[in-house]
Amino acid sequence: MKKFQTTLALTALAAALAAPAAFAQSTDSVGQGFVRGELGKTKLKDTTSSDHVKDTSYNIRGGYMFNRNFGAEGFYGRYYDKTTHNLGIDQNTKVDGYGAGVVGKVRFGEQALDTGFYGSGRVGYMHSNYKSSASNTTNGITTNYSVSSGSNQPYAGVGVGYDFNRNMGVGLNYDYFHGRVRVPTTGNKVSYNAQTLGADFEYRF
Q: Tens of pLDDT along the chain (205 residues)?
C-alpha cells in the first residue's frame, strides 16, 4: 500500500508540475477560474485490519488555471455520513475535509487546445474531520455522546476526462488521503485510508 501511495503521489505531482513545460509553446495562456462538482463513492479502511466502510461522497472544488495546463485549487469534501441503529443506540459517523493544492492538466493527441480528452493530477495539503455521535433513550431518559478528532495530511489525485469546449468538461477521478483519529479514552491515534472514485462536471469562466 505504501508503494502504491508513493506512486500515486508522484504521478499526480508529475502531472501538476510538468504540465506548464509541456505546453510552454502555447501563445495563448489566458487564465480561467473554475468550479467543479464531484459525486462518487468513498471507501474508508482501517490500516490495522481489513475493516472498511463505504458511502456516497461529494466534493466541491474551485480555483484558477493560470494557463491551460497549470493551476491552484481549494476544496471541501464530505466522504462519509451514516447513522446506524443497534440495540437501541443511534450512532452517526461523519468524515469530511477541506484543503488546497496545485493541479495540472495535459491533453492526449493532436487536438484543439480547449477541447478533447485530457489527463489530470493534483497534490496538496488538507485537514480532515472525524465526528461520531450517539444517543440512547432508556426509561424516558436520553443520553447523548459525541467525540470528534481531526488530522492534517497531504492528498493526491489523478483523473481523465473530456472537455466539450473552453468552458465545460466532464471527468473521472481517483483521490486518496491518509487520515488519523485520536481515541479519547486512550489518546492513541487510529489511522485510516480514504479512497474516492467519482465523476465530475466542471465549469470554467
A: 555 444 554 544 554 444 444 444 344 557 999 999 999 999 999 888 888 999 999 999 999 999 988 999 999 999 999 988 877 778 889 999 999 999 999 988 766 678 899 999 999 999 999 998 888 877 778 788 788 889 999 999 999 999 999 999 999 999 999 999 887 666 778 899 999 999 999 999 9
3-state secondary structure of 186: coil
Other Cβ atoms less than 10 A from the Cβ of 39: the count is 12
The Cα–Cα gap between 120 and 106 comes to: 6
**Does the predicted TM-score (pTM) go above 0.85?**
no
> How do the domains of the chain map onto residue ranges?
2-22+37-204
**18 CB contacts (<8 Å, ≥6 apart)?**
104, 106
Say how far apart CA 36 and CA 204 lie, in whole Å: 9
Exposure pattern of 51-85 as b/e (b: 16+ CB <10 Å)? eeeebebbbebebebebbbbbebebebbbbeeeee
Assigned architecture for domain 2-22+37-204: Beta Barrel (2.40)
Q: Report the alpha-carbon distance of residue 174 to residue 47 in Å, rounded.
A: 19
